[in-house]
Amino acid sequence: MAKSGKHTPYFELLEAQPKAGCPVCRLVYKATDRYLDSLLYEAVLDPDVRAKLKAAQGFCATHVEMLGRRPGRALGIALIYRDIIRAALTSAEEYAPNAPSKLDTLLGRNKPGTRLVQALHTDQACPACQIGAEAEHNYTTLMLEYIEDPEFQEAYAQGEGLCFPHLLAVLDLANTPDEVRNLIDPQAERYRTMLHELDEFIRKRDHRFRHEPMGDEGDVWLRAMNMIVGGAGWGLSARSGGRRSDPIEH
Ligand SMILES: [Zn+2]
Ligand SMILES: [Zn+2]
What we know:
The chain is built from twelve helices and no strands. It has helices at residues 8-16, 23-45, 47-55, 61-68, 74-94, 102-106, 114-120, 127-146, 150-158, 164-173, 177-204, 220-229. Helix 2 (23-45) crosses helix 3 and helix 2 runs antiparallel to helix 8. One zinc ion binds next to helix 4 and helix 8.
């Protein structure tokens, strides 16, 4: 595939290959983290930013958890959530269940909680998830674009490999059998290694072999879960995986 000049996202992707965990998960996490940091900074200064966040009712559970570990932007968070809680209180106070009209009954709108549900509900997606989805699209596209570049191919083959969701996303973009092969062959090798470690782990849990100390396979059960579901910075190989690695903090 014809390639444009290598640019910053390419080098980010290249440098993420040998690090712990799926490189796409890592870069999506970092993009989201950067976005949240600047958004919360802006939220303190700019009422328009807060109005958008109020409409989305803040962030999803995953990103709330991420924000809980970042006390540096607490003021922005407090300002956003004050708006949201204030709106919730207004809805709660204004709720007055009226006797349903005949029209409401005909239209199936006579459940007493419906109006309150509508007032409290938002159908806007978490803004951090939207940024994450964009980053995911960009980096999976880039993975495929460079998978036949010798420098990148080597880094991918030596690296931790992709989690299931991102492997599927990149495979889905492939246009040639060679691209598929370059993606799947190193991954198959990783599965072989992991399967061997799982066999060893399971064998050593047998009472006859319990005296044998655990080796690299000791945390393979954690890494196997990470391999299938993905996760920011969690290692997939014995080199960096399982208990030894934390989600990215920088
Ligand atoms: Zn991933
Ligand atoms: Zn989210």
